[in-house]
TrEMBL record:
Biological processes, Gene Ontology terms: cAMP biosynthetic process; intracellular signal transduction
PROSITE patterns linked: GUANYLATE_CYCLASE_2 (PS50125)
UniProt keyword list: Lyase
Annotated family: Belongs to the adenylyl cyclase class-3 family.
InterPro entries in the record: A/G_cyclase, Ad_Cy_reg, Adenylyl/Guanylyl_Cyclase_3/4, Nucleotide_cyclase
Start and end residues of each Guanylate cyclase domain: 213-321
Protein name: pH-sensitive adenylate cyclase
Enzyme nomenclature, EC number: 4.6.1.1
Coiled coil: none
Tagged with keyword Amino-acid biosynthesis: no
Keyword Transcription included in the entry's annotation: no
One Gene Ontology term of the molecular function aspect: adenylate cyclase activity
Family matches, as Pfam families: Ad_Cy_reg (PF16701), Guanylate_cyc (PF00211)
């Protein structure tokens, strides 16, 4: 019974004074009634959120890596790799009960994926990518949830109750949300990265290198802005760029990633990609509150791994971007030849440049939409 707990004797109020002490004294009995232990409260840096953690699986039970691996029929070495891929720290002693039971349960689908024919190394890569992406999503959710319940006059108990209620309502929605978004991405990935006839004929081990066009777009003067604007404003600018890029990235063009102040796109067809980046530059040029963009485009053989792209055209597109003027789209000779005489675009020769990492000078062309500047 919580009435029998001597709060003073537990040490849970040590170091607290005034209203902070009174609020904690009000919070602790409520937590104890929900099964949170005194040890958990002592170990927590934010006791008011312990009830919310219980809603999403933190029952305070710990297991060993060996115990969890045996329970789910997975080899210990692979189980440990999957755990690290999910973002958990390495456990030195596989027999030590240091894994939160709910965290260990997250690897329970490993055996089923292996049985379906997914290679173990590929499964680790998939898990790592999911972990990285979902870690960012979890941080955004945490921020949104706290923003919904934190108010200047709210007590610790009020925040605890509100956060528990909010998380309890949202938790059942998370699984379907993640599944729907992942399946959406998978549908479009399969559509735009389909195995072509050449790969089938040559019997290449997939995913092999293929002819694609790569584009990078970055914000001009972003580093200088960092000296004048607070980090929150810089983050909002980068997020706006990512959002605007997703809007113009219509299939077969795919938005790949954000790298600070830069975004990357790829397409198996060069003309749609060029159209997309021209629209992106036009959209930002018309916004006086947004820095100007510069874009570099290149075509060549590249390979897709873990959702990213690697190869010469990736490196070339990045270098071409650095050579582009603010508000312009600069295209390598390889991409210019791949696009050909398309009446949607107007070209001007921008000269041959020596770009870092490339032995020969690269011929560059400036691209505009056919309707730009009265053309």
């Amino acid at each position: 019974m919580t009435d029998d707990v001597d709060l003073e004797a537990t040490g849970l109020l040590d170091g607290l004074e005034g209203s902070a002490r009174a609020e904690r004294a009000e919070l602790i009995p409520w937590l104890l009634e929900r099964g949170v232990t005194i040890e958990q409260i002592k170990a927590s840096t934010s006791p008011m959120l312990l009830a919310s953690r219980r809603v999403i699986g933190d029952d305070g039970v710990y297991v060993s890596a060996r115990e969890a691996a045996e329970k789910h029929g997975v080899e210990l070495e692979l189980f440990e790799r999957i755990q690290r891929a999910m973002g958990l720290p390495r456990v030195e002693d596989p027999d030590a009960a240091v894994l939160l039971r709910a965290d260990a349960e997250a690897a329970k689908f490993t055996r089923d994926f292996l049985a379906a024919g997914i290679d173990a190394d590929e499964l680790v890569q998939i898990t790592r990518l999911l972990g990285d992406g979902l870690a960012r999503a979890a941080e955004a959710m945490r921020y949104a949830a706290l923003a919904a319940v934190l108010h200047p006059s709210a007590t610790e108990l009020e925040i605890a109750k509100a956060s528990e209620s909010l998380v309890a309502g949202l938790a059942p929605l998370l699984g379907p949300l993640i599944q729907d978004v992942l399946l959406l991405q998978l549908r479009h990935a399969i559509e735009t990265e389909a195995v072509n006839a050449t790969e089938r004929a040559e019997g290449q081990h997939l995913p092999g290198a293929r002819l694609v066009t790569i584009a990078f777009a970055d914000l001009v003067g972003f580093t200088r802005l960092g000296e004048a604007l607070p980090p929150e404003d810089l983050e909002r600018l980068a997020q706006r760029l990512a959002d605007m890029t997703r809007e113009v990235a219509v299939a077969p063009v795919r938005f790949i990633k954000t790298i600070g102040d830069e975004v990357m796109l790829v397409s198996p067809e060069p003309a749609p990609l060029l159209e997309a980046v021209l629209r992106l530059v036009d959209a930002t040029d018309g916004d006086s509150d947004f820095p100007r963009l510069r874009v570099g485009v290149a075509t060549g053989m590249a390979v897709s791994r873990e959702g990213d792209w690697f190869g010469s055209p990736v490196n070339l597109a990045a270098r071409v971007t650095g050579a582009a003027r603010p508000g312009s789209v600069l295209v390598s000779e390889s991409a210019r030849e791949a696009i050909g005489d398309d009446e949607r675009f107007v070209w001007s020769f921008a000269g041959a440049r020596h770009l870092k990492g490339f032995k020969s000078d690269i011929k560059l062309f400036r691209a505009r939409g056919a309707g730009a500047d009265g053309e």
